[in-house]
C-alpha cells in the first residue's frame, strides 16, 4: 500500500498482498479503457452537496472580482444588446456603479461573451438587479464545479478505485477552497474549461469500438469548444495528439483536423456572423507573449525589473513555453500504455509545462489541471501530496496578491478601496512573498511534471488513501 495508509473500506476492497511484500504484484490489471458509458452519478452524502451549493450561491451573490466581474457584466450588456463585445464602452449609466467608468473589454473568445449576452437578457433585463446579475453570471461556473465532482467520482469508480476513495475525492472537489474561491466568489470560468476537457478525454476511452470514429470526432469537437471557451485548454490538444499518434498517425491527424474545424466554428465564425471587429481582439493575442507576472516565473524577476510589460529583449522569455511544449511532447511520446492513466498523465504534464514556462500565469488557470492530478493521485500514479500542492500554493498566492480584497467590489466597494490602500503600504513585502511562493510553485510543478512524464509502470490497483490530505 502507498504511504499514509487508508480507510477500512479501502482495505476491504484491496487485493491481497503477496508474500513477496510487493503490494501491486498480485493485483489485477487496471482497465485500459472505460468499460462502456460511465455509471450514473452517485451522491455519497447529500449534506455535503447541499452545503457546497449553499456556500457557492452565497459567495456568488455577494462577491465578484473588481476587474473580471465588471468586464463580464459589461460584455453581457454589449453582446445582449447587439453591440460588439470587443469594443469597450462607458457603461456607468447602464449599471449605475462607479466601477463601470473604467473602460475595458473582454479578452476571451466568442463562446463566453455570447453566453454572457444570454445571461444579461434573461436576468438583468427583466429584474435590473445588480446582485442577481452577478449571481447569474456565476451559475454556469457553480454548475461546472458540481458536475466536475461527479465526473471525477465516476471516473475513479469506473477505473476500479474503491468507493471510499472515490467518495472522498468527490468531497474534495465539492468543498475545495480554490474551486469555491475561483469559481463561485471570483466568477472565473476555468471550472467550465476543466469539465469540458475531462469529458472530451472520456470520449476517447469509452469501449465502443464500432463507434470509436464518431466518439473520437465528438471528443475533438468538445475539446475544441473548451479551447474556445478559454485557450488554457490548448495543451490538452497537444497531449491527445501525442497519445493517439502512438497508436495511429492517421487517427491523430483526423483528430487534429476535426479539432481545427471546431476552432474555426466556435472561435472564428462568430466574428463574421455577428460582424464584430477583429482588430481589438487580435491585438490582445500579443498579451500571451509579452505580459509578465502573476504566478509565472517572471514574478521572481519583478523585484529586480518591473514593469508589467517586458521591454527590450525580455520579450523573448514570453516565447519560452513554445519550445518547452515541443520538448515535453517529444518526451511524452516515448512512453505510455494507451490507457486512461497514460492520457491523463500526458495532459496534466504538458499543461503544467506550459503553465510553468509562460511569462504570465493567472492563479485561476491552475483549476484546469486539478481534476487530472487528483485522479492520478487516487490511482497511485502521482504522490498523494500533488493535488494539495496544485490548489494550495495558488490559493495562498492570491492572498498576497490582494485578490480576496478585490472580491469585495460588488457589495462593499468602499471597503475594498480602503483595504487595498492599506495593503499597498506593504507592496514590497507582498511582492517578496509572492516571489517565494512562485519558487515553491516551480519546484512543486516540475516535480509533478516528472511524475507525469517519466517512463514508469503504472500501479494496477486502487490505492488506499485519497490525494490532497483527505483520509
Describe the structure.
Helix 10 (212-229) crosses helix 12, helix 16 runs antiparallel to helix 17 and helix 18 (370-378) packs antiparallel against helix 19 (386-400). This protein has helices at residues 8-13, 46-62, 68-80, 92-95, 111-127, 130-158, 163-174, 177-186, 190-204, 212-229, 234-245, 249-273, 279-284, 287-290, 298-301, 321-332, 340-357, 370-378, 386-400, 403-406, 413-424, 427-453; strands at residues 293-294, 360-361. It has one domain. It has 22 helices and 2 strands. It is globular, with a radius of gyration of 22 Å. A two-stranded parallel sheet has the order 1-2. The chain starts with 7 loop residues before the first helix and ends in an 18-residue tail after the last helix. It is mainly alpha-helical and 471 residues long. Residues 1-31 and 458-471 have low confidence and may be disordered.
Distance between the termini: 14 Å
Radius of gyration: 22 Å
Q: Can you give the mean pLDDT? A: 85
Counting structural domains, the number is 1
Helix coverage percent? 55-70%
Q: Find the count of extended strands (DSSP E, 2+ residues).
A: 2
Order of helices and strands: HHHHHHHHHHHHHHEHHHEHHHHH
Biggest sheet layout: 2 strands, parallel
Give me the secondary-structure category. mainly alpha
Amino acid at each position: 500500500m502507498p504511504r499514509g495508509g487508508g480507510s477500512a473500506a479501502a482495505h476491504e476492497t484491496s487485493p491481497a498482498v503477496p508474500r513477496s511484500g510487493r503490494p501491486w504484484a498480485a493485483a489485477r490489471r487496471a482497465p485500459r479503457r472505460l468499460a462502456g458509458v460511465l455509471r450514473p452519478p452517485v451522491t455519497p452524502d447529500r449534506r455535503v452537496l447541499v452545503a457546497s451549493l449553499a456556500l457557492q450561491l452565497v459567495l456568488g451573490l455577494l462577491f465578484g472580482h473588481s476587474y473580471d466581474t465588471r468586464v463580464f457584466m459589461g460584455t453581457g450588456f454589449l453582446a445582449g444588446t447587439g453591440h460588439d463585445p470587443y469594443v469597450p464602452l462607458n457603461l456607468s449609466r447602464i449599471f449605475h456603479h462607479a466601477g463601470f467608468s473604467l473602460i475595458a473589454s473582454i479578452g476571451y473568445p466568442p463562446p463566453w461573451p455570447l453566453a454572457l449576452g444570454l445571461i444579461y437578457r434573461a436576468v438583468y433585463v427583466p429584474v435590473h438587479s445588480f446582485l442577481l446579475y452577478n449571481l447569474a453570471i456565476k451559475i454556469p461556473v457553480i454548475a461546472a464545479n458540481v458536475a466536475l465532482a461527479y465526473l471525477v467520482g465516476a471516473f475513479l469508480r469506473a477505473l476500479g478505485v474503491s468507493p471510499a476513495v472515490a467518495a472522498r475525492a468527490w468531497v474534495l472537489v465539492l468543498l475545495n477552497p480554490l474551486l469555491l474561491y475561483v469559481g463561485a466568489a471570483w466568477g472565473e470560468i476555468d471550472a467550465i474549461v476543466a469539465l469540458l476537457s475531462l469529458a472530451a478525454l472520456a470520449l476517447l476511452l469509452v469501449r465502443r469500438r464500432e463507434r470509436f470514429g464518431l466518439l473520437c470526432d465528438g471528443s475533438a469537437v468538445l475539446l475544441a469548444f473548451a479551447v474556445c471557451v478559454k485557450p488554457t485548454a490548448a495543451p490538452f490538444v497537444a497531449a491527445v495528439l501525442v497519445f493517439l499518434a502512438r497508436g495511429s498517425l492517421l487517427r491523430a491527424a483526423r483528430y487534429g483536423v476535426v479539432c481545427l474545424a471546431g476552432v474555426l466554428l466556435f472561435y472564428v465564425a462568430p466574428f463574421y456572423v455577428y460582424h464584430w471587429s477583429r482588430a481589438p481582439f487580435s491585438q490582445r493575442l500579443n498579451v500571451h507573449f509579452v505580459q509578465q507576472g502573476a504566478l509565472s516565473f517572471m514574478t521572481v524577476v519583478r523585484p529586480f525589473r518591473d514593469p508589467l510589460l517586458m521591454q527590450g529583449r525580455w520579450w523573448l522569455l514570453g516565447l519560452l513555453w513554445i519550445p518547452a511544449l515541443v520538448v515535453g511532447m517529444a518526451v511524452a511520446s516515448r512512453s505510455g500504455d494507451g490507457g486512461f492513466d497514460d492520457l491523463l498523465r500526458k495532459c496534466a504534464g504538458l499543461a503544467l509545462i506550459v503553465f510553468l514556462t509562460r511569462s504570465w500565469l493567472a492563479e485561476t488557470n491552475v483549476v484546469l489541471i486539478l481534476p487530472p492530478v487528483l485522479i492520478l493521485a487516487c490511482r497511485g500514479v502521482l504522490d498523494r501530496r500533488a493535488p494539495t500542492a496544485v490548489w494550495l500554493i495558488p490559493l495562498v498566492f492570491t492572498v498576497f496578491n490582494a485578490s480576496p480584497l478585490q472580491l469585495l467590489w460588488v457589495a462593499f466597494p468602499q471597503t475594498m478601496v480602503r483595504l487595498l490602500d492599506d495593503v499597498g503600504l506593504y507592496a514590497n513585502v507582498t511582492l517578496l512573498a509572492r516571489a517565494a511562493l512562485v519558487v515553491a510553485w516551480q519546484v512543486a510543478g516540475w516535480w509533478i511534471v516528472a511524475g507525469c512524464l517519466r517512463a514508469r509502470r503504472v500501479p494496477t490497483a486502487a490505492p488506499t488513501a485519497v490525494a490532497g490530505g483527505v483520509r
